[in-house]
């Protein structure tokens, strides 16, 4: 009887430990994606783009080191936030990613869906230069490294649905917008790439 009780208590302890580990793992994942313009990650989650790999189940998880453009993910891995499991986001696919139509030089409302809000430094939006190489993975040299829109938060925690209105630069043809959400109380930021057409 005593032996059976010891096994039973051991089983409860192991079960409790497993539950703790299982419920704490998601906290390590990222927590937000852009849905206007729709990001590559969200296109994958929506099923409008196929063969995306793991990102289709967690479009909010492109979380990497903050400090862009001086720091952050390496060139060629910006869209995946430097995470190998999301490398499909870096593939230009010969221009096959769906592109949101924008009007050159006009105001546009950028939208994020945050599945878990964090104390925030800021949101910044970058765009590719005229004449950028559309067939190569996104690099700093392809981007205007001065953001065209910066929304400071000074440590505040944003709502789950975030909207920022700003003027998009004058452009023609196909471009990419890199949106960066920098977290104030961790060493990370969230990176979202959106394909757009002017």
TrEMBL record:
InterPro entries in alphabetical order: Cellulose/chitin-bd_N, GlcNAc_Chitin_IntDeg, Ig_E-set
Signal peptide coordinates: 1-27
CDD domains recorded: LPMO_AA10
Residue span(s) of domain Chitin-binding type-4: 31-196
Keywords: Signal
Record-linked Pfam families: LPMO_10
Protein name: Chitin-binding domain 3 protein
UniProt source species: Kribbella flavida (strain DSM 17836 / JCM 10339 / NBRC 14399)
């Amino acid at each position: 009887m005593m032996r059976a009780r010891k096994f039973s208590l051991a089983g409860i302890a192991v079960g409790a430990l497993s539950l703790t580990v299982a419920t704490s793992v998601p906290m390590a994942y990222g927590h937000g994606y852009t849905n206007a313009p729709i990001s590559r990650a969200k296109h994958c989650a929506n099923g409008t783009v196929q063969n995306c790999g793991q990102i289709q189940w967690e479009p909010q998880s492109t979380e990497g080191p903050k400090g862009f453009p001086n720091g952050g993910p390496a060139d060629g891995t910006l869209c995946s936030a430097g995470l190998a499991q999301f490398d499909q986001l870096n593939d230009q696919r010969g221009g096959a990613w769906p592109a949101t139509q924008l009007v050159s030089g006009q105001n546009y409302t950028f939208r994020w869906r945050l599945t878990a809000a964090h104390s925030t430094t800021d949101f910044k939006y970058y765009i590719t230069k005229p004449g950028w190489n559309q067939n190569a993975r996104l690099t700093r040299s392809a981007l205007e490294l001065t953001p065209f829109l910066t929304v400071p938060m000074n440590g505040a925690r944003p709502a789950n649905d975030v909207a920022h209105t700003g003027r998009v630069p004058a452009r023609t043809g196909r471009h990419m917008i890199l949106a960066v959400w920098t977290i104030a109380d961790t060493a990370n930021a969230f990176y979202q790439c959106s394909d757009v057409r002017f």
